[in-house]
Amino acid sequence: MKVCTDTCLFGALFSRWAREPQRILDIGTGTGILSLMAAQLFPNAHIDALEVASGACEDARRNFLESRFADRLRLIETPVQEFTPAEQYDLVVCNPPFFEEHLKSSKEEKNQAKHSTSLSKLELAQAIARLMHPNGQGMLLASTSGHESLEKVLNTSGISINQRLLMLNFELEKAFRIIYLVSFNQHKEQDCQLIIYNKEKEYSPEAISLLEPFYASL
Asked: How many domains would you assign to the chain?
């Protein structure tokens, strides 16, 4: 399974920020990496994973069936805008589309994965507000490019940003990703940061601490 380091760090952070959720929703699961990580971290949780791209659905379905968590993972091939579950979720997670203003690919599935062509920021914020339990939490991994507009639509949808983690490749570089913890609670923690690599281009101690439960070696 092809995975990105920033996505894995995002999933690993579930264990630090989430409050033992029983019902988890993964919006735009892709190959299923975040759902699988959530299933490993929370052994009593049931995870619903939404995806609309047919190729990604095939990958996610195979990855779920081959995992030891298959009985707690459910792949749902429907847009989140049309998704109407019987119950709301304790934790809603999403790695939203990046590169909204950038040049689009000629391949539709790449557009859906990398661009906001099938899910706008406003639609995402509205979906979280609708699907998150009143006492629930949400976690988002977003690009620093255009993050102000994401924060604005979260706010207008009644969602509060409780904490932001700025992700940097190296110390003194600019952040390239932001991880958000959100809820309907207005409590706000101070921003923090995660530096992925040290000067020797090896994983930093903090990155190793987060990733160790998921990697045989680092």
From this structure: 1
